[in-house]
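Q: what does this look like with zinc ion bound?
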Amino acid sequence: MKVHFLGCGDAFGSGGRNQTAYLLEDGGRLVLLDCGPSALFALKRAGFHPDALSAVLLTHLHGDHFGGLPFFFIDYLYNEPRSRPLPVAGPPGTEQRVRCLMALMYGEKELPFIEFPVLEPASRASLAGVDISAFRVPHQTDAISLGLRVTISGKTVLFSGDSSWSEEFIHQSEGTDLFICECCFFDIESTTHMSYSKIAANRDRLRCKQLVLTHMGDAMLARCEALPVMSAYDGLVLEI
Ligand SMILES: [Zn+2]
Ligand SMILES: [Zn+2]
């Protein structure tokens, strides 16, 4: 499986990075993890066609993680119509929020071939040949944020979404090939986002084969090259 880091920035455009979007490529299967506003542009720049997407999986409904969907829909409506359904799976409320965003940006439109499976916390699902395990992470109090464990052809990627530290990551990282872990802060204690100091203190307990930090704010970006953990950048491609 190849993992394309299409966008690994935070909500503030720190470092001039694209907003969240990771593309998992396995054979002809393409799964997009989160869909920040710059996702369509980044996908095309990486040489992929939007019609080739097999599924979109959303961790939560913050703009930097799902605000790019209307651009895909416009592309499907006016540029390259889809020939097969596209599941856009996310936490409860995803369909309503996505339709609302689409209506705000482009007016009410039919969305042919778009389906909205719900990912409940502590549940498993199988979509387009992809096995998904969803679990709740501490990021919002007014809505559900998910971490996702995604398995394709025997390779497993764990994605924290946006989250503060949780012991659940120790359990969920067991047996994974890659853990894409958000790291907004360097040493700030937060109930909504992760800090490097917390990750470093728990690094030996994480059971992933590879750890990559992402969603970094300015303080992390200024230090990440000197740290003993791999950091993401836009355009990074990992083969796992
Ligand atoms: Zn975010
Ligand atoms: Zn968020």
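The radius of gyration is 17 Å. The CA atoms of residues 10 and 215 lie 5 Å apart.
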